[in-house]
Amino acid sequence: MAASAPSSSAGDPDPNSTNLRPPSTTYDAWCGVAHGCTRKLGMKICGFLQKNNSLEEKSRIVSALKEQSSKNELENSERDARFRRTEVDFSNLFARDLLPAKNGEEPTMQFLLEVVEILTNYVRKTFDRSTKVLDFHHPHQLLEGMEGFNLELSDQPESLEQILVDCRDTLKYGVRTGHPRFFNQLSTGLDIIGLAGEWLTSTANTNMFTYEIAPVFVLMEQLTLKKMREMIGWPNGEGDGIFSPGGAISNMYSVMVARYKYFPEIKTKGMSAGPRLVLFTSEHSHYSITKAGAALGFGKENVILLRTDESIIQTHERPHKSEKVGIHTWVSQGNPHDLEAKIIDAKQKGYHPLFVNATGGTTVYGAFDPINEIADICEKYNLWLHVDGAWGGGLLMSRKHRHKLNGVERANSVTWNPHKMMGVPLQCSAILVREKGILAGCNSMCAGYLFQPDKQYDVTYDTGDKAIQCGRHVDIFKFWLMWKAKGTIGFEQHIDKCLELSEYLYNKIKNREGYEMVFQGEPQHTNVCFWYIPPGMRGMPEGDERRERLHKVAPKIKAMMMECGSTMVGYQPQGDKVNFFRMVISNHAATRSDIDFLIDEIERLGVDL
Amino acid sequence: MAASAPSSSAGDPDPNSTNLRPPSTTYDAWCGVAHGCTRKLGMKICGFLQKNNSLEEKSRIVSALKEQSSKNELENSERDARFRRTEVDFSNLFARDLLPAKNGEEPTMQFLLEVVEILTNYVRKTFDRSTKVLDFHHPHQLLEGMEGFNLELSDQPESLEQILVDCRDTLKYGVRTGHPRFFNQLSTGLDIIGLAGEWLTSTANTNMFTYEIAPVFVLMEQLTLKKMREMIGWPNGEGDGIFSPGGAISNMYSVMVARYKYFPEIKTKGMSAGPRLVLFTSEHSHYSITKAGAALGFGKENVILLRTDESIIQTHERPHKSEKVGIHTWVSQGNPHDLEAKIIDAKQKGYHPLFVNATGGTTVYGAFDPINEIADICEKYNLWLHVDGAWGGGLLMSRKHRHKLNGVERANSVTWNPHKMMGVPLQCSAILVREKGILAGCNSMCAGYLFQPDKQYDVTYDTGDKAIQCGRHVDIFKFWLMWKAKGTIGFEQHIDKCLELSEYLYNKIKNREGYEMVFQGEPQHTNVCFWYIPPGMRGMPEGDERRERLHKVAPKIKAMMMECGSTMVGYQPQGDKVNFFRMVISNHAATRSDIDFLIDEIERLGVDL
């Protein structure tokens, strides 16, 4: 191990500070002089000095610095505590040498700084378009072990040097989801404030279940949920809510709460205590509604899928410019008439309609169900209305686009994932409920060892018992910090910009040779769905042969993209439609040039297919 | 904003690198000279130069450096990219000035380094016993706003200076869960390798659902789960598993999978397609089993609680030294005889026994159910056996203590939370299942937009469809990295040390004046449960008055501990037992002196109660 300079500030001597070097070396003598200079600079110079052996050299530099220092004011004492890097040989250090080990402070700080250097270099390169999005390898290649990178675990410890190599390699063989040309998921981008928030969250390493051990985070969650409820439009932002591990779990909460509202005895007696309950959601909605139905004991076949009507678009192009604001008859909507017909049908069969999910931004098309029309039907039949705004909820932050969710204030519950459209790091998903206290009613088990009623503070702030989890990760801080740093207007600008970019893409390709749009009309969200028709296929007549060939185009182009690492975009089939590209934009680093790049890349890779 | 020096390495020119300073200043001229020196040193000196105005001074230093550089070899080009701190005025910078903003690289790096300084100072102080564990404030105090710290969110952005203050204050008013004297939860301690792993995880910011976007993490999860299954003792480590957001969800998985195994049609048709299913678990087990029963549609009353028999301890003191290894007749066990009686009773009522949960380390007592005895009964009646080793599973890493889980290899599923006894940062919980493929069978919905069968790689590595989540946080990396860094033997040492410490505590207080143990005999895990009897109560006769007074002692001492911030330990009532302290040790920073401190503190604070 190399040198150590005192790390505590002069004004605040730290009894626990350690000095790993043997005392009284020549180096220390010189270093002491350097420290006599302005402290921070002294420490930096110190790092230089230890690597140089010419005393004459050192003498000259140090005396120059010393003269300099006498002219400088004493620096702010808080600044004094700043870290500095020294050269440390990590090949002889192990995890056991780090804190809480005796004399562990210096290697701990040096190790963490080394990690931070790896991470900041990664961040820097992620935003650099000359960096590849990924360096693709097949599973068997990574499993067989790349040079110096072996995934296997063993009984014996590895040196910290190897651990640092492992960190570098983990990033090297991963995917840069923050790269300006990564368009593969609904969650993209690397927000620097959010990143800082995550680093702090993991350093705090606490748990959301009680105010006792997460006082600040619990209050941040409470305030942020209230703000979100205000944006939904519930009076005074009243209601309930919690951050959950993702939109699927948030949607599961909505079904649980609906069941508890109408049939509270099911909590105690089970599903057999109620009638045969049915749930409704559109065939284009997220699969998590059906998954929740299966998990919670309703059964998949009691989740009734509503037909969507893509033809309606023909008569309502650009509905947000019509006067019918709030009725977004659009592709992929849950057709309200079909909903009412299916409710009546279910009742006639003796089933009990319980719950309707309206999607605010479907996963593939980005379509918004007509919430107001659906809400009318829910009110008429006394059903729970949930809005799955996992993907589209972010549009509530935009004055220009929030009308697409008109009627959301009539929902009983809303899923909203800031980790999607709002660029918050994974994971960050909220379930918001209009009725206060119902989450606790639904989920509480009153475990005495966690939720003691006789604490010295107001225990209504202990939120653990309203969750289906016990321990719960702190997902709020990064989001709260981003909101502080950007303001509501910052999120609005981000969202408006992403929607403008998707409009740019749509306009660029809608009449371009070799492209066919999957649905007609301008997208409501940033989803642009299209087929690319390679030149060799352009004259082919419609029919099975063309369909089969077209079905293979997107997977082939995607595979080539991944292998050359230039960009990533999703594709999938849907219903009777063969594989098509689904372009989505939530990445704040993306620009028009990246959209142009994507199109060029598709054409370059697809030319011979 | 202050200066910027080129940050890319000389050998690898970066076309996107930015220089925030206007060109051709005197500063740049000098800086260029400095850069001509060894590059890394040049950058450091550059930071110094920009703060000094004397050209003569600069001239002298720079020429010294230049001479020096000619003697030095070219430095490793990777090292060249190292960061350095400069003085930046963050009060005029905002989130919008950071990457991906034009010229955003320099402020981004400086901002992140500033955050890292806050975090490393926090880490340093966390391990310093002169630091308080917490600085307690009531919810209303924090909500009203502390000086300079306002939790409210607004429309307009805050400066990065304010964001940094917010980061500092968030930590200041939080709880140091890594402090050597924080004993409040099953998850304590701050592992430096785990922390580095979390920082990397959030920088990678990806999602576990497909190999496509998390290739390395998906493979790490697969290998680590296999290793855990090997430690459980399943042949060749075969089976299934997934990391989930906490032990409660892992336990919920076990119930879902059991139901799917015996009644797969319930996935499609709902609970009404099966008989009335009942689950069994001990009254001392974690409440998440009952919670799962309520959520999944079984109903709370179909989760049958088994009596525990604390008297058995009298005849089997130190059972692990007897020959009956594997039959841990101990306090808080799920009494096997009661289990069989209740199974028979349920069948007679026409119910269908489905599932038994045996706890490997109960939350309050740390007791281990006799797994082999329970497994015998499960086999006899063809029931699913789950072992909830959320807290005790870590003991499988210890050759000395793993016998407490003897029989675990007979379980059908196991919950094991590395974030508890193994000190992995939150969250890290695994559900492990003996039968391969059953998680996917139970949960798959085959969403075409995520899990395309026509990808270029082996899509069996796409794990998303076996989860109840859609997106899933990367919980594996920190754990994998810790395992690499410590080796299996490092975890073993950690666990053995924590158990030794609890033995030390037990021996210290078992006969000490003023202490009564809640259960007799040596604890099996690190849980030491005791009442402290203040001097003024020591002569009191047994009875309601004494009970009522004793019930208030632990909450009062705990409140005082929190208000002076010296230490934290949990308390709770259980059954007919009034509030008692539950001491647990999972913190690798704790030593005997911290145990002594805790006892001194209880006596100091409780003397007048």
Automatic annotation (TrEMBL), chains A, B:
One GO term describing the cellular component: presynaptic active zone
UniProt keyword annotations, A-Z: Catecholamine biosynthesis, Decarboxylase, Lyase, Neurotransmitter biosynthesis, Phosphoprotein, Pyridoxal phosphate
Positions of post-translational N6-(pyridoxal phosphate)lysine modification: 420
Residue stretches of biased makeup (Polar residues): 15-24
E.C. numbers: 4.1.1.15
InterPro entries (alphabetical): PyrdxlP-dep_de-COase, PyrdxlP-dep_Trfase, PyrdxlP-dep_Trfase_major, PyrdxlP-dep_Trfase_small, Pyridoxal-P_BS
Any one Gene Ontology molecular-function term assigned to this protein's record: glutamate decarboxylase activity
Positions with biased composition (Low complexity): 1-10
Catalytic activity annotation: L-glutamate + H(+) = 4-aminobutanoate + CO2
SUPFAM superfamilies: PLP-dependent transferases
Pfam families: Pyridoxal_deC (PF00282)
Cofactor: pyridoxal 5'-phosphate
Family named by the database record: Belongs to the group II decarboxylase family.
Oligomeric and partner information: Homodimer.
Function: Catalyzes the synthesis of the inhibitory neurotransmitter gamma-aminobutyric acid (GABA) with pyridoxal 5'-phosphate as cofactor.
Protein name per UniProt: Glutamate decarboxylase 1
Species of origin: Alosa alosa (allis shad)
